[in-house]
């Protein structure tokens, strides 16, 4: 079975256990984020990260030209290289691909991004973010057929050649949908969707399709994006989505066994 595993890049995530778990699996695509590294590089470049909240309550990175430079350096550079090297140290042949490489991820630039600022809704005219419209599944299948694990992350590219930032959870959902994956695992720094964000033991064990709107309302911060990505993947035919922690030993096996929040 094909499994798409996304490991988060925010503070509190862990990748070593994920990489250990992927060793010996010939049927996996690893997707990554890297928000902690982006923030570090952006600050080093003198362009501190900014985030905004949409009218629907979803928190996103504000990505002007300066922030996009940090995204490219962090994700297609240090984060991806570290993951590929880590897999190699475990005997796994892996290739790192940003969405720009081979036009793997074709996107449409967002032109109507809006933010709530001081109680007012404003349009972000300088935002260089995009929405994924197409994934080159043939490129990924070709690598998998050679026994190579694709390690995939933002940014993406438009048909006109403009590089745009895209959400890594959305990338994972789009890749899983394009490959007809049996499972998508969104591994993050919390054990799953929490009823109480301050209580790690309050994990919601499952979210059915009819319960997604209520679950999105319950979620806080970037968990909203994970749930939106989970719903998109399920709507596209992915068998199931599990939101779980990247931190314990064998996090992939645990998630496949249903530990975390199972979305179906």
Query: Helices and strands, in N-to-C order?
Result: EHEHEEHEEEEEHEEEHEEHHEHE
**How many beta-strand segments?**
16
What is the CATH H-level superfamily?
A: Acetylglutamate kinase-like
| CATH structural fold name | Carbamate kinase
**What structural class do you assign from the helix and strand content?**
alpha/beta
Question: Mean of the pLDDT scores?
Answer: 91
Oligomer: single chain
CATH architecture: 3-Layer(aba) Sandwich
Radius of gyration: 17 Å
The portion of residues assigned to helices is 25-40%
Strand proportion:
25-35%
How many angstroms does the end-to-end distance come to? 17 Å
- List the strand order in the largest sheet: 5-10-2-1-13-15-16-14
For the biggest sheet, the summary is:
8 strands, mixed
Question: What is the strand and helix layout of this fold?
Answer:
Elements (H helix, E strand, L loop, with lengths): L2 E5 L8 H7 L5 E5 L2 H10 L6 E3 L5 E3 L3 H25 L4 E5 L6 E5 L4 E4 L2 E4 L6 E6 L1 H9 L3 E5 L2 E3 L4 E2 L3 H12 L3 E6 L17 E2 L4 H7 L4 H13 L4 E6 L5 H6 L4 E3 L1
Parallel strand pairs: 1-2, 1-13, 2-10, 5-10, 6-11, 13-15, 14-16
Antiparallel strand pairs: 3-4, 6-9, 7-8, 11-12, 15-16
């Amino acid at each position: 079975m094909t499994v798409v595993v996304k490991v988060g890049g925010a503070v509190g995530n862990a990748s070593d256990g994920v990489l250990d778990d992927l060793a010996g699996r010939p049927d996996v695509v690893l997707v990554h984020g890297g928000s902690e590294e982006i923030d570090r590089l952006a600050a080093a470049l003198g362009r501190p990260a900014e985030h905004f909240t949409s009218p629907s309550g979803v928190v996103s990175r504000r990505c002007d030209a300066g922030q996009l430079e940090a995204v490219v350096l962090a994700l297609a550079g240090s984060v991806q290289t570290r993951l590929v090297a880590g897999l190699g140290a475990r005997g796994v042949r892996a290739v790192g691909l940003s969405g720009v490489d081979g036009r793997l991820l074709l996107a449409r630039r967002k032109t109507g991004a809006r933010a709530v600022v001081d109680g007012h809704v404003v349009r972000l005219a300088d935002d260089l973010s995009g929405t994924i419209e197409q994934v080159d599944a043939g490129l990924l299948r070709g690598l998998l057929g050679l026994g190579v694990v694709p390690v995939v992350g933002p940014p993406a590219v438009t048909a006109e050649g403009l590089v745009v930032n895209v959400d890594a959870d959305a990338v994972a959902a789009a890749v899983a949908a394009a490959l007809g994956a049996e499972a998508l695992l969104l591994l993050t720094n919390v054990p799953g969707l929490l009823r109480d964000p301050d209580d790690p033991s309050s994990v919601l064990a499952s979210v059915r399709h009819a319960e997604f709107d209520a679950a999105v309302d319950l979620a806080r911060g970037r968990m909203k994006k994970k749930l939106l990505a989970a719903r998109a993947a399920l709507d596209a035919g992915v068998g199931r989505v599990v939101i779980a922690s990247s931190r314990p030993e064998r996090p992939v096996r645990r998630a496949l066994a249903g530990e975390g929040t199972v979305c179906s």
